[in-house]
Amino acid sequence: PMRVIVVARAPSNFRNTSPMLRAADAAGVGALLVHTGQHYDANMSDSIFRDLGMREPDINFHVASGTHAEQTAAVMTAFDAYLVSVDPDAVVVVGDVNSTIACSLVAVKRGVPVAHVEAGLRSFDRTMPEEINRLVVDSIAEWLLTPSADADENLRVEGHHAAKIIRVGNVMVDSLDDAMSRIDLDEATARLGLPERFGLVTLHRAALVDDPALLAHVLETLGQISEDLPLVFPVHPRTRHAMAAAGLEHHRGITVLEPMGYLDFVASQAAAKVVLTDSGGLQEETTCLGTPCVTLREQTERPITVTEGTNTVVGFDRDLTTAAVAAAMAHDGPPRRPELWDGHTAERIIDAIGTRVADEAWLPYASR
């Protein structure tokens, strides 16, 4: 039978890999899960495995956080040895973290085809480390598995061979649908002590939280919003450290919590009147849940969440942010489901890879 390695590191990766592992098992494909190391918090990583009903990784490299160079090099070294020992038919990488680029480079140089899930997403901002990772991985991967038409077009414009571009949909939706089927929303909101009417906040990207002046500005904006709408803020460990280092406090209208498990966090998104975030994945999840999203970034690599979804990108402008929150409160919209965001993406991913490995369809492009 076909054997593939699936690579993950950040919690968002696991939300994408969990459905793929289930689809691989159902199709009789041998899938080995490589966890390249704890993200920032062991509890966050462990809880998502429980919440997703996911089996333990086949191997964990335990690569710690560090500079981009340190992290990428350490993952490359560990993955190279593992790849040689396993000799898989393909390597599946997800998203845009450093492990994605590290494992892709190793696999391609060893002659193993790489399938990139979430291929073609672009912010067009090369100051973002994630954008560099996306560009490089897409340039060397054999199969570019895209979530939406805009991603297909980005790849075409960049000159990628049409045979490599395969639209499969958004695998995150597979996990989201499974989670919602298992959540009792009333029970979850009562247990978490969530207000009847609230906004949910998440902040974690380096461009924001590692800039003390910008973080202070955003916290002041959130404080202003919280005077009219109570805000619930599960604080990412990176953000908590940055706030403490900069001596920043939160407004009394903001309830600060420890990071939530995946199921509780999905429930919180579903119950919230609005979500304010710098996350990429939350722009997609809120679109599917029908919760208005206000994205605290200058641009998004997921524009379909704006054109077809519930997302508004405001940058860090206070007036734009407060206006977007007011608009969200006035107009609760229905869930939006772009094409192929249907909960069956993982099956299409495994089928696409299996078909191409079986007929060696990738070989004509291996030298390109």
Give the topology:
Layout: E1 3-8, H1 11-26, E2 30-35, H2 42-52, E3 59-60, H3 68-86, E4 90-94, H4 98-109, E5 114-117, H5 129-140, E6 143-146, H6 149-157, E7 165-167, H7 171-182, H8 185-192, E8 199-202, H9 206-209, H10 212-226, E9 231-234, H11 237-245, E10 254-257, H12 262-271, E11 274-277, H13 281-289, E12 293-295, H14 304-307, E13 311-313, H15 318-330, H16 345-358
Parallel strand pairs: 1-2, 1-4, 2-3, 4-5, 5-6, 6-7, 8-9, 8-11, 9-10, 11-12, 12-13
Helix pairs in contact: 1-2, 1-7, 1-16, 3-4, 4-5, 7-12, 8-12, 10-15
Explain this structure to me?
This protein is an alpha/beta fold and 368 residues long. Helix content is 48%, strand content 14%. It contains 16 helices and 13 strands. Strands 3-2-1-4-5-6-7 form a 7-stranded parallel beta sheet, sandwiched between helices. Strand 6, helix 6 and strand 7 form a beta-alpha-beta unit. Helix 1 packs parallel to helix 2, helix 3 crosses helix 4 and helix 4 packs parallel to helix 5. The two termini are 27 Å apart. 49% of the residues are buried. The model has no long low-confidence stretch (mean pLDDT 93).
